[in-house]
């Protein structure tokens, strides 16, 4: 796939993520050494990687928050080609966690509640 801009690629992946039931994290980017323009970008699942806690000895210790990261590798990598279009060069569909069921379309959610709920 190719896109006219980084923003168009981001919008596509966010819409895909919404339908599938996950949230997108803007991940790494690479810049041109000539003009510092972004020439590639990785969009990842928000549960990508693991949170590394760095302890700073000069600040007081606060109650740590629970991390939502689970090491998920789902992502889409895009880079600018010679024509100036943003092209998908790598795509990982599989997630290492369950996806959010609330992302299903309303009608699909109703159908699943009717047919798969326990009867009283």
UniProtKB/TrEMBL annotation:
InterPro entries with a match to the protein in the record: FAR1_DNA_bnd_dom
PANTHER family: FAR-RED IMPAIRED RESPONSIVE (FAR1) FAMILY PROTEIN-RELATED, PROTEIN FAR1-RELATED SEQUENCE 5-LIKE
Protein's recorded name: FAR1 domain-containing protein
Gene: LOC100802375
A family per Pfam: FAR1
Start and end residues of each FAR1 domain: 11-100
């Amino acid at each position: 796939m190719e896109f006219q801009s980084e923003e168009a690629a981001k919008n596509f992946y966010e819409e895909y993520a919404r339908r599938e039931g996950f949230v997108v994290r803007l991940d790494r980017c690479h810049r041109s050494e000539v003009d510092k323009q972004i020439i590639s970008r990785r969009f990842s699942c928000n549960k990508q990687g693991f949170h590394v806690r760095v302890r700073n000895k000069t600040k007081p210790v606060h109650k740590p928050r629970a991390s939502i990261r689970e090491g998920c590798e789902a992502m889409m990598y895009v880079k600018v080609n010679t024509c100036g279009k943003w092209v998908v060069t790598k795509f990982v569909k599989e997630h290492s966690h369950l996806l959010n069921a609330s992302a299903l379309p309303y009608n699909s959610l109703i159908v699943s509640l009717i047919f798969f709920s326990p009867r009283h």
